[in-house]
Amino acid sequence: MTDSPPLNVALAGAGMISWFHLLAWQKQGSRVRLVAVCDPDQAKARKRAAEFSIPKVYATPEAMFAAEKFDAIDVASPRETHAAWVEAAADRGIHVLCQKPMTPTLAESEALVRRVEGKSRLMVHENWRFRPWYRELRRWIAEGELGDIVLARMALLGSGLLPDAEGQRPALIRQPFMQHEARLMIAEVLIHHIDTMRYLCGELRVIGARAARTVADVRGETMASIFMESVSGAPVEVTGSMAATGYVARPPDRLEIVGTKASATFDGQLRLLGSRPRTIPYDNDQGYQGSFDGVIAHFVDCLATGAPFETGPADNLETLRLVEHAYWAAGMHRPPGS
Question: CB atoms < 10 A from the CB of 261, how many?
């Protein structure tokens, strides 16, 4: 029996987040061959190509599609470009891993899914649920350790949009686009937490939300609380702020889930509380990269076996519906300036 040929993969987008994508692709070893990177900023594209031994660099999608033959594309470009990349790849039968969100709005994502259905395989890069502590917690829930979930809440409280000791705002140094993003806290940040709560607690519906813009020169909302309930009626809350005084710039999540048999918490360590307590420590930075590793390994595995993607279009649309409903419930369904 001979080994399968490697999956030829191109990368769209050479920004900050592409580093973590490429580390994960690199860990696939001989299963994958990175063939090209495309970014209108050629300096960024050449830098990534040199760092990861990618042979070709392109400035436009048209040039890359015309010159290269590849099996899959990893779309890590700005969200407003996702639809064009996904559709161009699907029209050529190329499989797609697309960074979240698929598009800026639910309606655009629904239309995109309809247009590309059946042409190739599409998976959304929604990686938060692939963090190792959430995979372990999901195993506990599936094995009945917690019993029925009766309450769950998750918070991300950080100071990344506030000046640090040097007067810098860490979130904007890391991701400058955030300053001008119309939909920020919910659609860019808490989308991950909403999806993770779906993964852990089952399907949800929004029953209320509040959000506010608390940093004068940042266009989008910088804090939000979203109130949901599970199919069984259990309350599920997701809360976040990127301008929380006294907190670190990039904190770990804080999670509490109360069950009928036991409870679980995460705050850098995963704990099971009850008659059979246990604690598992995790390194936040390793878990961050591990979530990219998990997504990309899953994508490659599913292409090889034909298995369904965990975060395929149908699943991701459910998360996007909750995001959209949260904006409506918060009275922010129209972006500022629209």
Answer: 12
